[in-house]
Amino acid sequence: MGAGLMLAVLVVAGAVLLWAATSPAGAPDAAGPEPDPAAPGESVDPPADLEPGEIWLTGLVLDAATVATPDGALHDVSAVGQDVRTGPDGLVAGAMSVDATVPFDLVAEQIADDVVVGPAPDGLAAVTRDVEVAGRVLTVVATGTVSVEQGLLVVEPRTVDVGGPAFLSGVLGALARQLVTIEHEIQGLPEGLVLREVTVQDDGFRAELSGEDVRLAVPTAG
């Protein structure tokens, strides 16, 4: 999940560089949609201290149906960057927001090999995993609420079923609940980008992230 989101913002960085490389300095504006205005309170004037070779722009928007990496793919990705600038610190956005649908399988893979995550009724998430007890494997199934706590994706079980006789539910209840409670840190996010909201869709989690001074790319060695 984290690697895919990293790619999403790096694609934004690539769009910036492509725009700079293909737009001659001083050329008249081409016909098309007007650029988005700056965020409230933000100046549309470029920084006065731009060095030769540096690039700055704001109101940068990227929409992609799919963003794929070797670690997986995100869908319906939308990223908006304000005050995006290249410089000694690499490519940095003064403010950025990213929305993306993260497939359940991608989240499950980052938690453990035996975990299955999916949708449940009423906006809940379902978590399934196997547990071995006394030489037997029981399948634990839970449904729970989804929230964000201190930047973590949290699934808190409301119901837990250990898939065996009723008395086992009482004996294994605490253990089962612990196994299907998810407190997942999204890995590989650019510095400054934080998970803010998450909801459950049929095809994955819809994640909303934002932050300030988001480093999209670090300088490469010369």
Explain the overall architecture.
The protein is of the alpha+beta class and 222 residues long. The protein has 2 domains: 2-100 and 209-217, no CATH class; 105-185, no CATH class. 20% of the residues lie in helices and 48% in strands. The protein is built from 3 helices and 11 strands. It has helices at residues 2-22, 104-111, 166-180, and strands at 56-57, 60-69, 72-87, 90-102, 116-120, 124-133, 136-149, 152-161, 182-185, 194-201, 204-217. A hairpin with a 2-residue loop joins strand 10 (194-201) and strand 11. The radius of gyration is 22 Å and the shape is elongated. 30% of the residues are buried. Mean pLDDT is 78; it is low at 1-12 and 15-38.
Summarize the structure.
The protein is α+β, with helices and mostly antiparallel strands and 222 residues long. The protein is built from 3 helices and 11 strands, in the order αββββαββββαβββ.
